[in-house]
Amino acid sequence: MVLPIVAYGDPVLRKKAKDISADYPKLKELIDNMWETMYGAYGVGLAAPQVGLPVRIFMVDTSPFAEDEELSEEEKKELARLKKTFINARILEEKGDEWAFNEGCLSIPDIREDVFRKPEITIEYYDEDFNKHTEEYKGLAARVIQHEYDHIEGILFTDKLSSLKKRLIKGKLANISKGKIEVEYRMKFPELKKGR
Ligand code: NI
Fold it and tell me: How confident is the model at residue 194, as a pLDDT?
């Protein structure tokens, strides 16, 4: 089932999400629904707060990036195979010189901006069967994970912009939370007035 994606301005996007236990109710169903919601919106990642749940679950599928001609064969391979659910994740380390990439977010439609992040991460997480993993990622794969990880920490990519950029997009962000935007997928807007 496709779930509505919570739009910018909803307080759930600002909560530090909580760990879940293996007996979290209907976990498998939730994960299936989140995949369906993500693919339905042509996203490469989705975090539970974006469907209204302040819990530490997110998923990424970076395969759409694997076609990019400019990437190395090694990077294409890594992007093609990264399709995972991350539960109770903790980024243990981020390193390297920050690099910019134009990011977007399903909760913030129609805004794309360059965001600086470190290129290498070490992350610890549980998969959907609650097996623990510690893995390293770099480049675009790390980038998508960092963006989704920020969601479970209550952080949005727009927080990372310069104060000038923030001022420039302020009006657009306000319109998004009021639902004054055209979107191709189901969304829930925090300030949408009834009867509009
Ligand atoms: Ni996002």
Answer: 60
In angstroms, rounded to a whole number, what is the distance separating the alpha carbons of residues 180 and 196?
Answer: 10
**What's the pLDDT score for residue 68?**
85
Range(s) of the domain holding residue 100:
5-188
The Cβ-side half-sphere exposure at 185, using a 13 Å CA radius, reads: 22
- What are the tens digits of pLDDT across the range 143-181? 999 999 999 999 999 999 999 999 999 999 999 999 999
| CATH number of domain containing 9 | 3.90.45.10
DSSP type of residue 100: E
- 106 CA → ligand 1 middle, Å: 6
Catalytic residue list: 148
- Residue 25 CA to ligand 1 center (angstroms) comes to 24
Residue list, CB under 5 A from ion ligand 1: 105
Distance from Cα 144 to the centre of ligand 1, integer Å: 9
Q: Give the chain's domain count.
A: 1
C-alpha triplet 121, 126, 127: angle, nearest 5°: 105
pLDDT in tens, 21-55: 999 999 999 999 999 999 999 999 999 999 999 99
Asked whether residue 90 is domain-assigned, the answer is yes
Q: How far is the CA of 36 from the centre of ligand 1 (A)?
A: 16
